[in-house]
Amino acid sequence: MTNLRVGFFTEIYRPVVNGVVASVDTLAEGLRSRGHQVYCFAPSMPGGTRSDGDVFRLPSLPLPTATPYRLTLPLVGRRNVNNIIKRLGLIHVHSLFLTGWAGLRYARRYGMPIVYTYHTQLEAYAHYVPFEPNATRFAAVQLTRTFGNLVDAVVVPTPAVARHLRDLGVEARIDVVPTGIDVERFGAGIRDDRLRSRLGVRGESRLVLFVSRLAREKNVDVLLRALADANDPSLVLAIAGDGPQREELERLAVDLHVSERVVFLGAVRERRCVCLSKHQRNPGARSG
């Protein structure tokens, strides 16, 4: 296979840690391990580095909402950056907002194929926008359909998501590519009795770890209700992550009478062992 020069255009990137950033980095690492060159074009972020190596930062402004996302100004004015874009063999966009449209514009200008990874079901996030929800969902569907039909191929993580896009009217080629997982890191199968003790997991009780931002669209309440329905006192749930729904979920755990078997870890630093202090655990969680 001929080595490719691939340009990633993304609306969010490090130092933010979320699913899109993890997916972008995992894909980039996979492509580079196979000899391809990957260049990432992303907005400048508070606390982040400037353009460095294969990462090029675009000017950006803060949005008027509480979000790590930025209003990207896709003005690539530096000559060396334009020269890199012109020499790409493929553009892969990870957003259908400003950076995505910038990637589409460059692909059309320089006659190169463009791929779009559909990371987010936008209509499920209508509650974050300060407009009428039904109108917002309608606009999100229209945007998804329009952008999806302008690219050469759309990448989705599951067959269900592919069917969803077809239902929305996307007629472009759709390829199902499951999101990559670092199996060596997450599948080591190492049991840490000290960690289990800190989480209040006794004896042979089973520990389930859930990692997510705690927000309405993540449906964490379904997981808590499933734990209650299981009615298994040996099952302990650890939830890593934080977000606007945390307090509501903590109250739900109490109402469902499972708070003694749920530990809210809050935000956990990447590649760091979890060490819980008393103030980090759910008031209803049992002590270790």
Structure characterization notes:
This protein has 288 residues and is an alpha/beta fold. The protein contains 9 helices and 12 strands. The protein folds into 2 domains: 172 residues, 3-Layer(aba) Sandwich (Rossmann fold); 90 residues, Glycogen Phosphorylase B (Rossmann fold). The strands form 3 sheets. It has a 7-stranded parallel beta sheet with strand order 3-2-1-6-7-8-9, with helices on both faces. Strands 10-11-12 form a 3-stranded parallel beta sheet, covered by helices on one side. The protein has a two-stranded antiparallel ribbon with strand order 4-5. The radius of gyration is 21 Å and the shape is globular. The relative contact order is 0.09.
Give a short synopsis of this structure.
Helices cover 32% and strands 19% of the residues. By secondary structure, it is α/β, with parallel strands linked by helices. It folds into two domains: 5-176, 3-Layer(aba) Sandwich (Rossmann fold), CATH 3.40.50.2000; 191-280, Glycogen Phosphorylase B (Rossmann fold, 3-Layer(aba) Sandwich).
Outline: globular
Structural class: alpha/beta
Give the second-level CATH assignment, the architecture of the largest domain. 3-Layer(aba) Sandwich
CATH superfamily of the largest domain: Glycogen Phosphorylase B
Mean pLDDT: 86
How much helix, percentage-wise, in residues?
25-40%
Uncertain residue ranges? 272-288
What proportion of the residues form beta strands (DSSP E)? 15-25%
Number of domains: 2
Radius of gyration: 21 Å
The CATH first-level class of the largest domain comes to: Alpha Beta
Q: How many β strands by DSSP?
A: 12
Query: Quick one: biggest sheet?
Result: 7 strands, parallel
